């Protein structure tokens, strides 16, 4: 009897955890389609400021990586790639992830990962052409995001 109760409680706990993970990490808040075809993501002012600052940081990193490619200097690329990589994910303000639609999160994580990939490539086996291709992938993410979303405050 006690094993049955523990099994039922375990199943309930797993179901609740799956539901919470879905709610907070995947679902995000609904977005409202704008007249210009983009979807609006509404968030707290502080979170919007964080996202905008991160995007400006991405743009600065892209410029520096491009400079590293032009100068054929993998050290620049490695340094900048690490600064904008997945290590930045730890600095995300509380509540921000919940407010983002799943597709936006996917693009954001993929962008951070591409910075990591370029940093690793620059450190281990630098290939100018391949780095340029990864940078182009990253820029495609940026363009897709800006074409798809508009971030406003609540």
Structure in words:
The protein has one domain (31-153): Four Helix Bundle (Hemerythrin (Met), subunit A), CATH 1.20.120. Strands 1-2-3 form a three-stranded mixed beta sheet. The chain has helices spanning 2-27, 45-70, 74-84, 96-99, 102-124, 128-148, and strands spanning 32-33, 39-43, 149-153. α2 runs antiparallel to α3 and α2 packs antiparallel against α6 (128-148). It has 154 residues and is mainly alpha-helical. It is extended and about 70 Å long. A hairpin with a 5-residue loop joins β1 and β2 (39-43).
What distinguishing features does this structure have?
electron transfer activity; transmembrane helix; Cyt_c/b562; 3-stranded mixed β-sheet; Four Helix Bundle (Hemerythrin (Met), subunit A); 6 helices; 154 residues; membrane
Q: How much is the average pLDDT? A: 86
Level of helix content? over 70%
Query: Termini distance?
Result: 51 Å
Can you count the beta strands?
3
CATH fold field value: Four Helix Bundle (Hemerythrin (Met), subunit A)
- The global form is extended
CATH class wording: Mainly Alpha
**Rg over CA atoms:** 20 Å
- How many individual domains? 1
Output the strand order for the largest sheet: 1-2-3
Brief synopsis:
This protein is 72% helix and 8% strand. With 154 residues, the chain is mainly alpha-helical.
Which SSEs are present, and which pair or pack?
Layout: H1 2-27, E1 32-33, E2 39-43, H2 45-70, H3 74-84, H4 96-99, H5 102-124, H6 128-148, E3 149-153
Parallel strand pairs: 2-3
Antiparallel strand pairs: 1-2
Helix pairs in contact: 2-3, 2-6, 3-5, 5-6
